């Protein structure tokens, strides 16, 4: 774990992807992220995928690496009081609350700022008006399913990657650090709201899709696996594998042609089509005809032959591989990559865990830390953060208001 954010304490109340991943990103940079959950775990504690050996959620452990866990009865007024105390503890780098529990009255900004005026609260919601949305409902509304999938299809195609949750999580982490810097400069806390649909719409606009629809009045066509506005696609190899080769820039185009021995053929083709393939728009216009040549070339070579030729020429390419192939064969997904470490995850077993993808020149990235067991740090948080005595902590356990890790 990196020490970039050492001393920063973030209290997290969350479920699903966006908020937990935001907290995890902060924890990987050294922040003390304390996650509170209902005793026994929240609604996503057992979500798939699960470990075959004991059913533990690989989803939950994957999103909560490096945090501390506080288990409390959230329905009990005394349990809620403990959470409010935890969130509003004094300290220049404390008093930060990250959540996607929108609309919970006892966790509102107004309720918490009665206890700490300079509180920072980052709240992730579905839509800007507070109404419910998840990644999959947001994605269906922002246009991408209508440009995804085979060109011959007549129905929208959903993407399996929860892209808006991921983007929202990183934006939320940025919101935490930005609000903290502002408080250090001004002494003022604030409530920062981030809607999942706003995150998606911001990206859609930044990539030109909104302007394309408004200014040009055009619906982007379905391209299958062709890259829009340039040349790139999947190709089959002689030994039955598939690769992706890209020529986004002019240099990449020239290198790809040279590697495949097709420079002269492409010059002839562009002459016949009265186009200039040094212009990305022209390459895109002729993508079908161009692809036929590269498809034939790839089908005459094995994956290993293509690897040697493409790597020698500096082609922008990679091979399609499953998750199991990625883990088995790709050195980028192994301890050869300094981001990864093999860690013993309680309740799951030993497996690769990624630390932060950020690699600072002046600070060590550090080893990855596993996710906690629910309630693993309850007693130390009650004692060291809230400041309760062992007798007071014992009474809370006896009353069933808090819980430690299950035996």
Structure, explained:
This protein is of the alpha/beta class and 407 residues long. It has two domains: 9-204 and 335-403, Rossmann fold (3-Layer(aba) Sandwich), CATH 3.40.50.10540; 242-319, no CATH class. The protein is 39% helix and 15% strand. The protein contains 16 helices and twelve strands. It has helices at 18-28, 58-63, 77-87, 109-113, 135-141, 163-186, 196-206, 209-216, 250-259, 263-273, 280-285, 287-299, 303-313, 323-329, 378-386, 390-398; strands at 9-13, 32-38, 68-72, 96-99, 120-125, 190-195, 231-236, 242-247, 316-319, 340-345, 349-354, 402-403. The mean pLDDT is 96.
Q: What attributes does this structure have?
A:
407 residues; alpha/beta; Rossmann fold; 2 domains; seven-stranded mixed β-sheet; three-stranded antiparallel β-sheet; 12 strands; 39% helix; elongated
User: If you average the pLDDT, what whole number results?
Assistant: 96
The rounded Rg comes to 26 Å
* Approximate strand percentage: 15-25%
Summed up, the domain count is 2
Helicity level = 25-40%
What would you give as the CATH superfamily of the largest domain? Crotonobetainyl-coa:carnitine coa-transferase, domain 1
Q: In terms of quaternary structure, what is this?
A: single chain
Can you tell me the residue ranges where pLDDT is under 50 for at least 5 consecutive residues?
A: none
Total beta strands: 12
